[in-house]
Amino acid sequence: MVDEALLSVRGISKMYPGTLALDGVDLDIRGGEIHALVGGNGCGKSTLIKILSGVVEADAGEMHIAGHTVEAARIHPRRAYDLGIRVVHQDLAVFPDLSVAENLRLGTDYPATGFGQVRWHELRRGARDAIQKLDIAARPHDLIRDLPVAVRAQIAAARAMRGMDGRNGIIILDEPTASLPRHEVHVLFRAVRRMASEGHAVLFVSHRLDEVLELTQRVTVMRDGRVVSEHSTASLTEQDLIGSILGERSIPERAERVVVGGRSTERDLRPPVLKISDLNAGPLRHVNLELRAGEVVGVAGLLGSGRTELLRALYGDLRKSSGRVELNGRRVAFRDPGQAIAAGVIMVPEDRVNAGIFPDLTVDENMSISVLRKYWRGGWFRRAAIQRDAGVLRKRFRVKTPSGDVAIRSLSGGNQQKVVMGRWLRLDPALLLLDEPTQGVDVGARADIYAAVREATHGGSAALIVTSDLEELAQVVDRAVVLHEGRIVAEVPASELSAQGLNELIYQRGEESHVV
Amino acid sequence: MLSELVEAKNDREAPSRARWSSVNFAEKYGLGGLLVLMILVFGLFAPTSRLFFSPPNIQNILANQSVTGLIALAMVITLVAGYFDISVAAIAGISSVTMASLLATDQVPIGIAMLVAVLLALVAGIVNATLITTLDLDPFIVTLGTYVLINGILLAYTGGRVVQGVPASIGNWGAGQWLGIARPFWLLVLAAAIVWYLLNQTPFGRKLAAIGSNRSAAGLAGIGVKRHVFIAYMLGALVAGVAGVLLTVRSGSADAASAPSFLFPALAAVFLGQTTTKSGYPNVVGAMIGVFFVAIAVNGFTLLGAQNWITQVFNGGVLVLAVAFSKVMVRVRDRNAKKRNGMAT
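^ inputs. structure came back:
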């Protein structure tokens, strides 16, 4: 069973006006296998998923699914579903106000009596079976909104197995961990491994390469609409994988970037940009921190450790109950983000879609919202100047867009984030507060974003970066602090930075909280 | 290296952009085109043509729709920020009734009566704004509530009677023309120009649009959301106040029910106007075209012999169709944009 491909894709091509999105893609996934699909934004993997699930029709190619042959140009969602293909999207698509049992059953018919009343008993029993099968820590009558995000993800995965009727299907997980706190990822992984062990084929799509290495058996790498390589995960390192994803444009640049920035001796000579003394705000307790000019400091910590709140408190978005914050030697107390921005403090929020971009406004408008007044002369906007300056910024931050005049909503996540970065960095801020700046962003865009941060700090500002990706944190920052239950429990200089070390510190108990 | 690649790709994509511009064109000028078409049909071909193009009929449409137009403008201001204001029609009622009764029973000078009427409307706007921003209540429900509440208060105040006794000189002004076109219409043109300028050409207006697009992002971008929304409600009430004054001027009297009845024509016009922009956003020019679209259709059908029901059928039908059309166009546009960007996730 395991040797035989449950899903075989041959020669799939898809042409969009102006682009060849997929160019003769072959892919084999075996039953019982967890197979990763990776590649930068725009490599074609989303299009491939859409074709597999029948949402988009291909121009050419064939799919062999569990003994059936389907022309890829003739696929539609119903057919894909009937053949056992299921997609779990990153937004999970669960219904927070309904119970676990109802969530598991929605989309198929509820069991009902002759009068049309729901047979709750049967509904619960079915749910209990599904829960047991994947070993999910929830009860049938629990409401989804009361459950941790990782358990919700498990429910979403379990929901994908509806209507399989004992057959083996193909389950596509599209960035399933994007919305999960880092330490809860293993909870979902357990469910995924269970699915595979039952004989289903799992296609795992993720930007988080460490997860790919941990969870999957094989990796297919796509670039520019083609499959460029297929690896067996066991013999693969993260560096190999990054090299494979990026092609010729690869790692040396990153290494170079790690070297720049402060070593401690020279650091002490620079003026402090930010000085926090005994800050209390929200969950934060007695936080002390100093950032010097040119420094990029990372904040590591679990979800709920107060890392996001630290940035919000500095940005005037969270009231501080006590403590002193100095910016370039002057005491500041921002009551709202507007005051922070005026003083040269900017924040890129964690939730890009809901708090970062203005989806209906154009790319250029999104970039210019921070400097509108500058262009308002004599009662009118100087449109030409807005366009010209935004064009320069688009080039500088490598925003990939047909023009500055399209709604930002139509750009990929990485490009949206570059626009948001451009909006703020054009102000030449003194202090950059970045909350998960590379979430859902591909490797190439990540490098661009951190290059932009370095460019800003070279000019004498300082940056405070929160990210759950410890590997990344260890590579890009000059120094990291670890937050635990609102306190800074450790400070790690560049020379001692490693993902492993940070991970250990993050999970440490609060007892050793006097390192600083 | 990558940037070169990207640029090369952009160049390749450029021609495909032009193809969709015909869709843009149809959308942008579709409503205006339909309006022209309808005028031509009613004016040239239908049995109504003589009546329709008669000067009194045209003057009547232009003057009558000035009040609807002002109320639609009032709605657009808050809607740009994503906030409903149902109550503007009732607020117009406040100023209409206030002005009439000040003039009729209290013999107040005209200028003072107008000023007091508009100020009272402004007070109502401040009440709305306070409830919605400081207490953070749902704007639709709040303004629906104040709409009904104001209706009731007006009814109690007037005792259900028409407030008569407004000096004839005022009515004469309202019936007069300037450059051959009814004076109230010029007032509407002026107000529309001011509101358009405010919403499109000032930082204040662009910030309202940003709030309308994403409120939390606006807050984090340093835009004082509550302050902007508060001011928007005040401006809406101000325009509504002017609409009420105009209504009294036009009719030479006031009653509790007439201003509030402008709610639906104005609402239909605003949503019809949304269909003329890329993102389905409320906008001044569209709303103005919408006002006259609805009015001319109703007028034409009435001349053809349709009864009173045509107004409601048209207002309601247009409202639903307009919302549906906007949504579909935005969806089509998104799909096209995705295709254009190819496989970008």
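Residues 55 and 259 of chain B are 26 Å apart (CA to CA). Residues 2-45 of chain B form the longest helix (44 residues).
thumbs up if we can close this ticket
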